[in-house]
Write a structure and sequence with these properties.
It is built from three helices and no strands. It is mainly α.
Length: about 80
């Protein structure tokens, strides 16, 4: 897989993770349906936030590593 495709994939995963985090916050703060569900609703909102963090944080670190490596290779070739 080329670096451009990998970077695009990682940015997509980060965006998906951030959307899940925002969805979990919406469920927790503003959704009356999730509030009416009680403990199950809290678990649903917490799982959205947890999966969002799992998707976004490690991919940010890996994406940063790829970009730093690419910049170092570019500086070395000059």
């Amino acid at each position: 897989m080329t670096d451009t495709k990998l970077i695009l994939l990682l940015k997509t995963v980060i965006t998906l993770g951030l959307c899940l985090i925002l969805l979990g916050i919406y469920f927790h703060n503003f959704s009356e349906t999730v509030e009416a569900m009680g403990v199950k609703g809290i678990i649903i909102s917490a799982m959205c936030i947890a999966f969002g963090m799992v998707l976004s944080l490690p991919t940010k670190m890996y994406l940063t590593f790829i970009l730093v490596r690419r910049e170092a290779e570019r500086n070395q070739s000059e």
